[in-house]
Amino acid sequence: MKFSRSTIVVATVAVLTLATTNVVGAANRTPVARAKMIAHTAIQRGGTLTFNRVQDIVSLDPTQVTDNESIWADESIFEPLFAATPNGKSLVPDMATSYSVSANKLRWTFNLRQGVKFSNGQEMTSADAKFSIERVGAKASNPWTFINSDIASITTPSKFQVVVTTKTPWAPLQADMALFANGVIPNNFAGESATTFWNHPIGTGPFVVQQWLKGSELKLVRNTHYWQAGKPYLNGVNFVTVPDDNTRLLQLESGAAQIDEFPAWSQISELQSKSGITTKLFPSSWTQFLGFNEQYAFFKDVHVRRAISFAIDRAAIVKSVLYGHGTVANSQVTPALWDYNPKNPGLQYNLAQAKKEIALSKYAKGFKVKLLVGSGNQNELTMGQIVQSELAPLGITVTLQEVNGAQENTLQSTSQFQMSFLYDTTDIIDPDELMTFAAVGGSGAQGTHAEFTNYNNPQVDSLVTKAEGVFSQAARIKIYDQIQLILAQDPPMAYLFYQPFAYSFTTKLHGFSVFPTGNYHLENVWLSK
Q1: DSSP class of 172
Q2: What b/e string do you get for 393-420 counting C-beta neighbours within 10 Å, with b at 16 or more?
Q3: What's the half-sphere exposure (Cβ side, CA atoms, 13 Å) at 257?
Q4: Which of 96, 173, 279, 335 could serve as 81's disulfide partner, Cβ 3.0–4.6 Å?
Q5: Cα separation of 470 and 487, whole Å?
């Protein structure tokens, strides 16, 4: 879940997909359980993957981050009880192999995978899972407290069994147990202080932190204790921070890097036909929007928010910024998610209606506002110039407030902006995370306050809570449809567009895939010579 700013094809493959319904019956998660099982006679082991990314991670502690760069790196180090399938629609076993729910829907029993070791060789047990899940809800400052907020207690009746009792019937719980922040770490930080532990964290994932050069590079090496036999194939992964689009491309072409995260949209068409490089647009849960901070009086006025939403030509942005590689947004939710409502029209470009809305507001003559943008982010700079131009007819004078990427993250996460380009993805398959993170602004805000916009609609809050207690997916969809319609008319943000996850990588890289939830499973990846 980022607030700021799938199928694997191999020469010889055998595919098996595992999915869970009410009870997970698979006792062993083979390589397919996270991606797809690849039987390939020519898999080559070894080598270090250089993975160029647009910005550095914020923290190695998954409970302290909301940026995708940190989240996706952490998912190679820590593993939760369950994991999403490649299509982002269902769950498979991870650190848990099965679960059951009591008749009153309050008691969840999770059976853990046996024989799993942490990267230090220590056996994983129920005490570790209990500690890991409890710490997510332990601090109000933790942005993910809301995920585990309905947990009343956790007990460990046996070495490999965890029982979670909820305060109320809580439909999202299994999906919540797939959140990166609930990744299992050793009980009591393996006897270390929290500070010492997070300098060199210990997890059950395929890779281990070797060194983090802040602002530059995160070096991971193979976890020799990894529970999936023979994996990972790589010796290591280096996540290298390379903000400049052209530099990332040049390093990919020269062989200095094997993956270019988010190549410039202007380069996509050329890259798709370039020899030695594969460029894929993976289906995603990425929604881009223009956020309004309601700590400022003009954004408390719904007519101002509606006016701006009507004034923005989303199709023009998709064409000029994404070079056509995206679609106009009509909702907080993307078509990649099971609760998306295609019948929700949203507020689309209509300048005449925008002028009517601003006339109905307390700011009929307009106002001056600052728009936060990343100084090195060409997409945001271009979108900022478009917003400047399109709001001028409403009398709204927009000044671009340029800051570097780290400052932008800080200002957004602390609500120190007037307008800002925000985006999010979902980390789990259940809509509750996204709705709570990006729409709930009242007593259930848990520190995020509608993705830092300080939006507050009690009706939305009530409906999100209602959906959490409903176990029928069909019934929940009806509730989420209602929420999306409300957010369209009372927008906390101007929903701009949906975009795929764009990645370019060398043709020598095999098994690389990105899920709609944004994560990738590098234990399945290998490099040919």
Answers
A1: T
A2: ebebebeebbbebeebbebbbebebbbb
A3: 23
A4: 96
A5: 21
Cβ proximity of 62 and 181 under 8 Å: yes
Q: Which residues of 279-309 are buried (b: 16+ CB within 10 A; e: fewer)?
A: bbebbbbbbbbbbbbbebebbbbbbbbbbbb
Q: Which residues contact 19 (CB under 8 A, 6 or more apart)?
A: 85, 90, 91, 92
Share of the chain above pLDDT 90, in %: 81
Sheet bearing 96-101, strands edge to edge: 96-101, 107-112, 161-166, 151-158
CATH classification of 56-200, choosing from 3.40.50.10350, 3.40.640.10, 1.10.340.30, 3.90.76.10? 3.90.76.10
Contact (CB, 8 A) for 282 and 72? no
Q: Please state, in angstroms and rounded to a whole number, the distance separating the CA atoms of residues 451 and 424.
A: 9
Mean pLDDT of the chain: 90
Helix axes 431-438, 458-468, angle to 10 degrees: 160
Phi, psi at 135, each rounded to 5°: -70, -20
**Which residue in the block uniquely carries the two structure tokens 């990738």?**
520
Is pLDDT at 13 greater than 80 in this prediction? no
pLDDT of residue 143: 85
CA distances from 145 to 36, 135, 137, 450, 455 (A): 32, 9, 4, 14, 19
Task: Report the distance separating Cα 237 and Cα 52, nearest Å.
Answer: 10
What phi and psi values does residue 299 have, to the nearest 5 degrees? -85, -10
> Which of 432, 465, 423, 445 has the alpha carbon at shortest distance from 66?
423
Q: How far is CA 252 from CA 63, 248, 258, 274, in A?
A: 32, 6, 6, 12
* Cβ atoms 468, 434 nearer than 8 A: no
Residues of the chain with CATH 3.90.76.10: 56-200
Contacts of residue 396, Cβ cutoff 8 Å, sequence gap at least 6:
308, 358, 366, 367, 368, 369
Q: What is the 3-state secondary structure (H, E, C) of 275-320?
A: CCEEEEEEEEEEEEEEEECCCCHHHHCHHHHHHHHHHCCHHHHHHH
The pLDDT score that the predictor gives to residue 358 is 98
Lowest mean pLDDT across 21-35, 263-277, 280-294, 482-496? 21-35
| Segment 152-159 long-range contacts (CB within 8 Å, at least 24 positions apart) | 154/130, 155/130, 156/125, 156/126, 156/127, 156/129, 156/130, 158/126, 159/125, 159/126
From 3.10.105.10, 1.10.10.60, 3.40.50.2300, 3.10.180.10, which CATH number describes the 283-500 domain? Answer: 3.10.105.10
Question: In terms of C-beta density within 10 A (0-12 exposed, 13-18 middle, 19 or more buried), how is residue 499 classed?
Answer: buried
In whole angstroms, give the CA distance from residue 153 to residue 265: 47
